[in-house]
Amino acid sequence: MRHGIGYRKLNKTGEHRKALFKNMLNSLIKYEQIITTLPKAKELKPQIDKVITIGKKNILSNKKKLFSKLQDKKSVTKVFNELSKRYNTRKGGYSRVLKAGFRTGDDAPMAVIELVDKNPEARKVDKPKKVEKKENEKKTDQKVASK
Asked: What is the pTM of this model?
């Protein structure tokens, strides 16, 4: 019989798989697009869709449920404040998986998983701005010149 074979194991233990998908969910919520292997992306798609569906109903029990799943306060607030409003009229299909060729090292099939109607500025969340670097260089040049 075929009972209990509802997902890919990905050659990982249960704890490792759970931590992997928690980290991938947080990254996908933060950057709204990530590049990973095709099987991981296919397993992640239903999970992110469920997270956004839970976030559309703004009640305390749903916030607690999402926090227990994601364990990141910033991700939970982004789901409730931004993503739930963005997908308010959409009834499902909040993410998509696009094939992205093969990895050079081991020829593994790669994929891009992204949120539909994503914010293009979300990918630049952690990247420092070039303007700040130029201002910092000017300040250090002024300090060196004054000494």
From this structure: 0.82
Residue 9 located in a structural domain: no
- pLDDT tens-digit map of 129-147: 776 556 666 666 666 666 6
CA 71 – CA 50 distance, rounded (Å): 16
Order of strands, sheet of 95-102, starting from the edge strand that comes earlier in the sequence: 33-37, 109-115, 95-102
> Is pLDDT above 70 for 105?
yes
> How far is 106 from 125, CA to CA, in rounded Å?
30
Q: How many domains does the chain have?
A: 1
The pair of structure tokens assigned to 38 is: 């095709």
Q: Is residue 41 part of a domain?
A: yes
CA distances 112 to 104, 115, 129, 143, Å, are: 16, 10, 25, 46
